[in-house]
Specification:
two-stranded antiparallel ribbon, 71% helix
């Protein structure tokens, strides 16, 4: 005589669910294999790629800002030289000075001119010269777009300062005119530095906002909800233990029936 059993669901039926919950708690991620959420995994992969791209774009933007700040610092040094040269040129026009005194003023004037030349030719960022026309522009990659930074030529020749001297009042007057034009050119270039830096800062803020939203969305899809996961872990453990106990009881009952039938 055959005996048909309608026992409880075996404990093994709950093991897979419990294992998945345990993995989620241990890793902090809801998706640990494709079977957990295939569609969600595809979205997470796309978002991760976007986040990584925007992180690199943000780094590029910060590098561009550092480059502009380096160029502006060199420009500030040149500006200080121009201010001193302007003072010397005005002083050299004073009729109370003798030729020897004017020569001394001119020596300092020429030293400042040499300093401008040195600054223009030696201001660089990561090996890229910034102020002598060796590099006229630098492209900054910003994910799906780019920003072009224009760099000036601030050498004495480009500023119209080459050949100037203040060895006599007439030359000093000519030098003053040249210095005025050079200062105007320098101010225009520094204004461009500021505008370009503001543009990169705006792009950086936009990238940060996009990244924040992408990270938030990815977190909602992939990160473990620990309160829910722990509650589910407890539920699955109870179901597993209950099933095991019921299975054991069912096996015992079947054994008793078979023993009675055999006696």
């Amino acid at each position: 005589m055959a005996i048909e059993s309608f026992g409880p669901i075996p404990a093994s039926a709950y093991i897979s669910n419990l294992s998945s919950v345990n993995s989620s708690i241990a890793s902090g991620s809801q998706i640990n294999q494709s079977g957990d959420n295939a569609a969600g995994q595809a979205v997470v992969s796309t978002l991760t790629s976007q986040i990584n791209t925007q992180d690199m774009a943000s780094r590029n933007a910060n590098d561009g800002i550092s480059l502009l700040q380096t160029a502006d610092a060199g420009s500030e040094s040149i500006n200080n030289n121009l201010l001193r040269m302007n003072e010397l040129a005005i002083q050299a026009q004073n009729g109370t000075l003798n030729s020897q005194q004017r020569d001394m003023l001119n020596q300092e004037f020429q030293q400042n001119l040499a300093s401008i030349n040195s600054t223009a030719n030696n201001t660089s960022f990561n090996g890229v010269n910034l102020l002598n026309a060796d590099t006229s522009s630098v492209d900054i990659a910003l994910a799906d777009s780019s920003s072009t930074l224009n760099l000036p030529n601030l050498t004495p020749n480009s500023l119209g300062l080459s050949g100037l001297d203040i060895s006599n009042p007439a030359n000093a007057a000519t030098a003053l005119q040249g210095l005025s034009l050079a200062n105007e050119q320098l101010l225009n270039n520094r204004s461009q530095f500021g505008a370009q830096q503001n543009g990169l800062t705006s792009s950086l803020n936009n990238l940060a906002n996009q990244n924040l939203n992408a990270l938030s969305t990815r977190s909602q899809i992939s990160d473990t909800d620990f309160a829910r996961a722990i509650a589910e872990q407890v539920r699955q453990s109870i179901l597993n233990e209950s099933s095991a106990m019921m299975q054991a009881q069912n096996n015992q009952s079947r054994g008793n029936v078979l023993q009675l039938l055999g006696s």
